[in-house]
Amino acid sequence: MTTVFGAIAREDTQPIEIDHLFGLSDIVECIGQSQFADRLLSYFDGHIGADHCSIFQLKDYELTEVSSACRADAEPVIQSDLTSYEVKRQLSVTSESSVRVDFINVPFSGDCNRYLQKRQRVLLSVRKDGTAYCVRILRPHDGGGAVDALLETANCIAGTAMSIVAKHVDLTTRRPNLTPALCSLPEIEGCILASTNLSKREGEVCARILYGLSSCGIALDLGIGKESVMTYRKRAYQRLGIGSQRELLMWYLTLWSDYRETPELARTELN
Q1: What is the number of structural domains in the chain?
Q2: Less CB within 10 Å around the terminal CB: N or C of the chain?
Q3: Of 128, 159, 174, which residue is a domain's last?
Q4: More confident residue, 262 or 83
C-alpha cells in the first residue's frame, strides 16, 4: 500500500512568492518545443527536488502521456503508475482551475521487494475547460526537506506551473500531423483540386511536384509529354502568383491547413 503524506488544493488566486518565480521564464520560452519537459524537470528539481517528470492529459476518459524527462543520474522508470481513475478521483474534490497537489511514497520501478527504498511521488493535477492536465514528479525519499515544507512549496508553485503546462499540452496536441499532407498523393491532389480554380491537369502536375516526382516521372505517371508537364507547371505557377517549388510548398501547406479543418460534408460537396 502507498502512504499518503498530504494533499492540498490550490486556488489560482493565491500569490506566488518571488523566489518561486525563478526559472519560470525558461519554461515559458520552451512552450510547444521538445525540450519543454527537461526545463520543467529542472524547475521542479530546483524547488522541491526531482528525478523524473512526466506530463499527462486526460481527455474523453483517455489518459495520455504527452512528454517526460529524467535526470541522467536517476534510475529509469519502467512504466507509469498513474491511472485515469486516480486522476479523476483527485480532481473530484477540487473546483475548476484549482490545482491538486499530492505526495505519496512509491516503490522503485514497481518492485515491491524494494519498497523500503521508496521514492516520493508528487502529483499536480488541474482541470480546465473539460480537460485534465497532470504532472507526475518523482523525487528520492531521502531527497531532503520536511514534508510540510515541501507541500507548501509545491502548493505555491503549482498554479502558475500547471497553467504553463496546459498551454504547452494544448499547443503540442493541436499541432497538425503533416504526414498525410506530403506523403499521400491522393490527399495532395484532392486538396488542390477541391480548393483551387486550377485546371485538372494543372492540379495533377502540382500535386506530383509536391509529392516529389521529377518532370519525367510526372510525364510517365500522367501519360503526357515532358514539355506538357513544363507547360502545365508554368500555367499553374502564373495562376497562383508563385515562382518556385518552395513557394508552391508554402502555398500548399497553408491551403491544406484550411482544407483539413473543412467538415467532411463540405469536402464532399467541393469534390
Answers
A1: 2
A2: N
A3: 174
A4: 83
Q: Are residues 186 and 156 in the same domain?
A: no
266: domain CATH number is 1.10.10
pLDDT in tens, 183-219: 889 989 999 998 889 999 999 999 999 999 999 999 9
CB 137 within 8 A of CB 119: no
Residues 41 and 135 in one domain: yes
Q: Which of 147, 174, 201 is the last residue of a domain?
A: 174
Q: Are residues 198 and 223 in the same domain?
A: yes
pLDDT digits (tens, 9 = 90+) for 55-71: 999 987 888 888 999 98
Domain assignment of residue 105, given as a range: 4-174
Please report, for residues 84, 189, 196, 222, 234, the alpha-carbon distance to residue 201 in angstroms, rounded to integers and kept in the order given.
51, 10, 12, 9, 12
Q: How far is CA 89 from CA 2, 84, 93, 94, 139, in A?
A: 16, 8, 7, 10, 23
Rounded Cα distance between 172 and 131, Å, is 14
Q: Are residues 186 and 60 in the same domain?
A: no
Give pTM, 2 decimals: 0.59
Alpha carbons within 13 angstroms on the beta-carbon side of residue 19 total 6
Nearest residue to 109 (alpha-carbon basis) of 123, 97, 119, 96: 119
Same-domain check for residues 36 and 152:
yes
Say yes or no: 163 and 192 in one domain.
no
3 state SS of 35: coil
131 pLDDT above the threshold of 50: yes
Secondary structure of 244-268 in the HEC alphabet?
CHHHHHHHHHHHHHHHHCCCHHHHH
Residue 72, φ and ψ in degrees, nearest 5: -60, -30
Cβ atoms < 10 Å from Cβ of 212: 10
